[in-house]
Amino acid sequence: MKPNLSFWKLWNLSFGFFGVQIAYALQSSNISRIFRTLGADPHSLSFFWILPPLMGILVQPIVGSLSDRTWTRFGRRIPYLFVGAAVAVAVMCLLPNAGSFGLTVAQALIFGLVALMLLDTSINMAMQPFKMLVGDMVNEQQKAKAYSIQSFLCNAGSVIGFLFPYIFTAVGLSNVAAEGVVPPSVVWSFYIGSAILIGCVLYTTIKVKEWDPITYEQYNGTQDSKETSANWITLLRNAPSTFWKVGLVQFFCWAAFLYMWTYVVDAVAETVWGTTDPTNEGYQTAGNWTGVLYAIQAMSSVCWALVLPKFKNTKVAYSLSLLLGGLGFALIPFCPDQYLQIVPFLLIGCAWAAMLAMPFTFVTNALQGYGHMGAYLGLFNGTICVPQIVAALCGGTILSLVGSHQSNMMIVSGVLLAMGALCVSIIKDKR
């Protein structure tokens, strides 16, 4: 049996995740703002959002597979973690400066797109090893504690990353810039975020010593088994019906959130500040405030996650959470005061909490006795990535259908979450 680890050893395993999540929060909350500032048309904005889920679905399995077969003097997971973080730091210093190199609008957008692809690839490369380190080195009795530490660091990093532009504006950095140039408040958020990222990853790299192959095999056994060679098509063909039913709910949920991430800055700017012009100071103020709203959503999610276990009926908890989130989305265009916008994001946090916990609960319950648990859960990650890719491809068309008002896309998100809530009723919960 693997030895028990002290609290601080468990903390050290995941501390770098804090920095990775700051980087991820900065990316996710500022992509649309950066590309709109560079000159992207709202109808093509969703295409930039194809890259994050696409890189996730490609990079994470590859990193997992390669690191399984890697043994170096520095460990098997940590080399990928460090390289991913190092590349992320370099790209984080380049992406927000895409409009400062004297390029044309088209060239700046292409430069930004390539930088975004590299950033998302490197963040995914840095993120995946943390989950694997816990799986490699933590015994079953301590895994819940280890993942709770990781969850805390994840949420704390997200909140700080979301708030950075607002904080830097408050301390005196300019939140406006020349046309096509990203404001210093955002640029310096990426600079400081990258410094924290590499500092946190260096801390984990120095403090964590992975086991050598002999010790690893002693505690984990050999990884050769019939399960690891299962064909993915065969697994999908034999998957329990719950796998597909939960996947249908996931489709509507992740499409809804993709549209929020893509269009919410313009939606808040239009609703509260009456502008969608990136050169307008009100637009950039809306960008900062959206980061605050994201942080409020994250904190609401943490609180609602504590309430969810109190429901006797898991399906009721799941569907109610999605309905509350759908109501929150639909309210965004009808809250003309910036502080009133807090209410929708408190409700959206309820849906986010359920989306992170409930689907895997249903699926793992249904997979008991099927075998291939790891393979199935890997495949189930496709129900997170594929809906976002599909939604991103359709975003411009749907935006045109709702009058080209990005605030109306929040109502579309609300309808999608409501449809997801209705689909919860077809799930059979096998406990």
Please sum up the structure shown:
The protein has 431 residues and is mostly helical.
Order of helices and strands: HHHHHHHHHHHHHHH
Morphology: globular
Give me the CATH fold name of the largest domain: Growth Hormone, Chain: A
Average pLDDT rating: 90
Strand content: under 5%
The radius of gyration computed from the alpha-carbon positions, rounded to a whole number of angstroms, is 22 Å
Distance between the termini: 28 Å
Total number of strands = 0
Q: What is the subunit arrangement here?
A: single chain
Helical percentage? over 70%
Number of domains: 2
- Specify the structural class: mainly alpha
Describe the largest sheet.
none
CATH architecture of the largest domain: Up-down Bundle
CATH superfamily of the largest domain: MFS general substrate transporter like domains
User: How many H/I helices?
Assistant: 15
Instruction: State the low-pLDDT regions, or none.
Output: 223-228
**Name of the top-level CATH class of the largest domain:** Mainly Alpha
